[in-house]
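Let us work through a complete example step by step.
Step 1: write down the sequence.
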Amino acid sequence: MRNPACAFFFLWMLGLSALHAQESDSLMLSHQGNAYPLYPQTIKIRPDIPSPFLTAEGQEVVLAVAEKGEYTLIPVTIGGPSAMVEEDVVDETDFPTLARTGLHSSKELEQTESITGRTIEEINRLGQPGGLSQDGFLAAGEGIISVLKQDNELVKALGLTHPQMAKPLFHVLNMMQACLDEGDWNMAHHRWEYVHYAIYHGKVVFLDAHDTKGGQRSIFDDNIMGGFWILIWREPTAEEIAFLKEKYGHLEPSEFESLLHKLTHMLTGEIEPQYIQRYGFYEGHTGWRTDPIDIAFIFGLRSIEEIEGAFPGALDELLGEAL
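Step 2: predict the structure and record it as C-alpha cells.
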C-alpha cells in the first residue's frame, strides 16, 4: 500500500496554509456583466460561467458544489501564491525537449542514463513494488524509460501535452489548498468534506480526499513528498455508455464493467501531477497510475469519440494493463 502523508507533514502544510487564509473573502469575479463572489463565499444558483475559467487578469477559477449543495468559485491558479506544490517545474536538465514543447523526444529518452542525478537502474529499483512503497511506482518488471516512452505516445496520440494533462490535477490540489486555508477540512476524519464535486469542461467530477499518517518519498531526487490520497471519478453519460457498448460490445459483461470503471476512476495524490509536469511520468501500471486516457476522459479534455478515434478498438487493452 502506498504510504501517503505523515501527520507532521500535514500539520506543517496546514500551518503554511494559514498564511493565505482570508485572502479571497471580498474578491469578486465578473463575467458577461455578472459579478460573482469567490470562495469562501457561496452562491445558491449555479453561475453561468465556464469552468475552468480564466480571467482577464490570468486568474484560474473552478466551479464546485459545496457540502450544502451551494455553488462556489474556487481560485486554482497554476503556480499562484496559494498553490499546494511547485506546479511550474519541468526537468529541463534531463528533458530539454519536454521543457520546450510539453512532449518528450524519443531520442532523448533513449539516451537518458539518469534523472535528477539518479541512475535509471536505481530509479527502477526504488520504483518496484516493495521499493519505496508497497504498491510501487512501477509494476513488477516495468522500467521507467519504457513507461515514459509509452505514455508519451499516448499523450501525443490524444493531441495533448504533459502540462495540459497535469493541469486538472493541479487544479484539484489547489481546491484542496483553498479549503485548507479556510479551515474547510474535517480534521477529526482526516478528510476533505467541503467540496462534493467540481464542474470541469461541463463534466461533473467527484472528489474525495484524505490525509493519513504515512509518508511517501519520491523515487527521484526531487524532494517531492506524498501528503494526501485523492479519489477522482465521474459517472459516464448514457450516450457515452452506448458508444462504448457499440465499440466494445464483444467483451464479456464483467470485462466491459472493468473497462468502464478504469476509464472513469483514478486514485492519485500530490506526487502524481508533479511527476507528470516534471517528467511526463504517470506512474507504471499500478493502482496509483494516473492514466492519460483517464485524465482526458474524466476532465473532459477529450470526448469519448475522440479518445476512441486515437486508439480504435484498443481501450480495453490499454486500460486493461492497469491493476
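Step 3: interpret the result. The CA atoms of residues 64 and 308 lie 29 Å apart.
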